[in-house]
Design brief:
Rossmann fold, globular, binds adenosine-5'-triphosphate, binds magnesium ion
Length: about 170
């Protein structure tokens, strides 16, 4: 059992892709270096769409491809930009075994960037306890998604600032 227990912080209904994007942009405003978010949910549920909007929300203007085959994409701000945090975006679906994640240099990412991880269960015990957990699932109506956000008290306090409506 982990010492830092994760509770449900929010349950939301995202009616369409633009609702997903709006939430991601809102969340991007409070993220900082050292934050880790794990995105769980089936293939095609919207993990990458959320990460893409979040990375754009942080100020990156370029395309955000899915790291399906590269496993990791790193976004670095220009040298003279002191505001924008680096981002590591991972998709671990194709990771063969948990320890292979170390070869991606993920320890560096945790310390120096905001880390977004799709399929975080693939890295097993190498996933730090303090990560924020975002679970996505399909809603009954087309284009709708259910989202459950889980995290420790520290995350709960930070997310309060977002004033998210409960569904
Ligand atoms: N409300 C919604 N939120 C997010 N995506 C949505 C929504 N409604 C429809 N979509 C569509 O669902 C698809 C989500 O694809 P995406 O690549 O983000 O999934 P994923 O969870 O990253 O899958 P994978 O496990 O393969 O990485 C996109 O085609 C997107 O347009
Ligand atoms: Mg994806």
């Amino acid at each position: 059992m982990s010492l830092k227990s994760k509770n449900i912080i929010k349950q939301l209904l995202l009616d369409n892709l633009s609702a997903t994007r709006q939430l991601a942009e809102k969340l991007s405003a409070l993220l900082k270096i050292g934050d880790i978010i794990g995105f769980e949910g089936n293939l095609g549920v919207g993990k990458t769409e959320f990460c893409r909007a979040l990375i754009h929300g942080l100020g990156y203007k370029e395309d955000v491809p899915s790291p399906t085959f590269s496993l990791v994409q790193i976004y670095e701000p220009p040298m003279d930009d002191l505001k924008t945090a680096p981002v590591w975006h991972l998709d671990l679906y194709r990771l063969d075994q948990p320890q292979d994640v170390l070869e991606l240099g993920i320890d560096d990412g945790f310390d120096t960037a905001i880390t977004l991880i799709e399929w975080p269960d693939r890295m097993g015990r190498y996933l730090p306890d303090q990560h924020l957990q975002i679970l996505l699932s399909m809603d009954d109506h087309e284009g709708g998604r259910k989202m459950i956000i889980r995290g420790d008290d520290h995350w709960k306090a930070r997310l309060k600032e977002l004033n998210l409506d409960d569904e």
